[in-house]
Amino acid sequence: MNLKVLCLCLLFEASCFTEFEITVPRDTVTGFYREELILPCMFPVDSSWDLRSTVITWQRGLDVVHSFYYSQDQLDRQNLHYVKRTSLFSQEMAQGNASLKLDKITLQDAGVYTCSVSTNAGSQKKSFGVKIAAFYSEPRLQFSLLNDGVNLLVTSDGGYPSPTLQWLMENSDITNQTQTHFMQDTHTGLYVVSSWINLTEVTNSSLTFILHNKPLGQDIRREIQLYSDKSERQGESAYRCHGCFILIPVILLLLIVMSVLFVFITKRRREHTKLNGATEVGHFSEILIPNRKSSICL
Ligand SMILES: *[C@@H]1O[C@H](CO)[C@@H](O)[C@H](O)[C@H]1NC(C)=O
Ligand SMILES: *[C@@H]1O[C@H](CO)[C@@H](O)[C@H](O)[C@H]1NC(C)=O
Ligand SMILES: *[C@@H]1O[C@H](CO)[C@@H](O)[C@H](O)[C@H]1NC(C)=O
Ligand SMILES: *[C@@H]1O[C@H](CO)[C@@H](O)[C@H](O)[C@H]1NC(C)=O
After folding, report:
1. Mind listing the domains of the chain with CATH numbers?
2. Given the CA of residue 97, which atom of ligand 1 is nearest to it?
């Protein structure tokens, strides 16, 4: 007789344990930094279900996250880390909903959570993993003038976990020519990422900065257009020479205008050097780098 039941159980494994089976996520759940996270847990209810005999306990390891019995929340033994951040959906409990809402997620909330449910129909507990992730901010581009080129620095912060970075120059990978620095905020644990490249020769080309935060599928891709106006200047001087054969007064006028421009540019260049050579570039703005006769736009 007993053997027969065992055989049936092996054959119809599911049906032998459906009597009281709770449901939690099979895969790790991802929570977002500072947001709320619902930890799902469902239990079977039938017509004999009774709130007063229902016990729901959420734990992370040995820490009590939240518990409920005698028809109400029982938070005496709740771990300090979770105080005022947890709640059950009491309206939904009659439908077998034992899910926990966790507010203001931080990186310290990651771990293995266990949902235990006990009713007059039976009891069971199941566990699943929770990991936390945070989106990286819109990257900021800074450039500074070096003696022999420009330094481009891209910074993005407030993300988790550490991302993978890639730099492209006209579709070829130049990540090896860049340097990257990851810094973790001691308080929040979130990352600040800085990545920079020194360009000695600025030509008309496009640079692409790619930041990939895998667990979130976050892909930041920003293009930086580099312009060199060398050939434009050559064109300008050719035009001036053409003019000199036509009318001498025009040349004189041009010379005056050029002297004024020269004084203006030299003055601007001096002012620019005063800014420690570092300037932040906004999006789609274009900036002329006086020393290098080139401009950059993001
Ligand atoms: C439990 O109820 C809440 C609130 O209505 C809902 O957001 C959640 O999805 C429910 N949980 C499950 C596992 O259905
Ligand atoms: C970057 O350098 C490493 C070793 O320093 C090399 O194995 C790799 O192939 C290089 N990658 C590219 C894209 O040049
Ligand atoms: C870029 O230039 C700065 C200043 O000269 C230097 O400190 C830094 O190491 C250089 N970085 C790279 C990636 O070559
Ligand atoms: C770079 O592009 C600018 C604007 O499109 C153009 O005026 C200039 O001649 C180009 N420079 C070179 C070196 O090709």
Report:
1. 20-133 (2.60.40.10), 140-297 (2.60.40.10)
2. 1
Rounded Cα distance, 99 and 92, in Å: 9
Count the neighbouring beta carbons within 10 Å of the beta carbon of residue 192. Answer: 16
Ligand 2 contact, 177 CB (< 6 A): no
pTM of the model: 0.68
Assess whether the C-beta atom of 225 lies below 6 angstroms from ligand 4: no
Angle at which helix 248-274 crosses helix 230-244, to 10 degrees, equals 150
* CB of 173 shorter than 6 A to ligand 2: yes
- Whose CA is closest to atom 4 on ligand 1? 89
Which ligand number lies closest to the CA of residue 97?
Answer: 1
Q: What is the DSSP string of 161-199?
A: SPPEEEEEETTEE-GGG-EEEEEE-TTT--EEEEEEEEE
CA separation for the pair 102, 59 (Å, rounded):
12
- Residue that has been written with the tokens 């540019």 in this structure: 265
**Over the stretch 199-229, which tens digit does the pLDDT of each residue have?**
988 888 899 999 999 888 999 999 999 887 7
The two three-digit tokens of residue 154, written as one number = 């891209």
| pLDDT for residue 291 is more than 60 | no
* Residue 67 to residue 78: CA distance in whole angstroms: 8
